[in-house]
Amino acid sequence: MTFIQVIEYDTKRPAEMELLYDEFLRATEGKRTLTHEFHTHDRERTDHYVDIVEFPSYEAAMRNNDLPETQEVAARMRELCTGEPRFLNLDVMDAQTYPRG
């Protein structure tokens, strides 16, 4: 079953956050289990971001979370945030793709 993790955070240092994410991708090449990611920015709150990350399963997400590289990036991410990031762990109950129209 597909699993989605939502990471919601505020930062005044988005460029550094982007570099950190790029570093994570390089460091976890061949190890990470995420399959899809949306990095979003809130139009109403200029310092607010939401990352939506897809995994093939909860177990795969936990394997990704347990990687030393993930733990290091999470700690450094917290340093770049104003306040504590919020994590939502969501089991996908149903997913649909709709044609435009």
Task: Describe the overall structure.
The chain is of the alpha+beta class. The chain has one domain (about 5-90): Alpha-Beta Plaits. It is built from three helices and four strands. The protein has a four-stranded antiparallel sheet with strand order 2-3-1-4. Strand 2 and strand 3 (about 50-55) form a beta hairpin. Helix 1 packs antiparallel against helix 3. The longest helix has 14 residues, at about 15-25. The mean pLDDT is about 95.
Strand sequence of the main sheet, in spatial order? 2-3-1-4
Largest sheet, in brief, is: 4 strands, antiparallel
What's the Cα radius of gyration? 14 Å
Q: What's the CATH topology name?
A: Alpha-Beta Plaits
Number of strands: 4
Poorly predicted tracts of residues: none
Which word captures the global form?
A: globular
Write down the overall mean pLDDT.
Answer: 95
Strand content: 25-35%
End-to-end gap: 29 Å
**Total count of domains:** 1
Structural class: alpha+beta
Task: Sketch the topology as an H/E string, one letter per element.
Answer: EHEEHHE
Instruction: Report the CATH C-level class.
Output: Alpha Beta
CATH architecture: 2-Layer Sandwich
Q: List the total number of helices.
A: 3
Helix fraction by DSSP (H/I, runs of at least 4): 25-40%
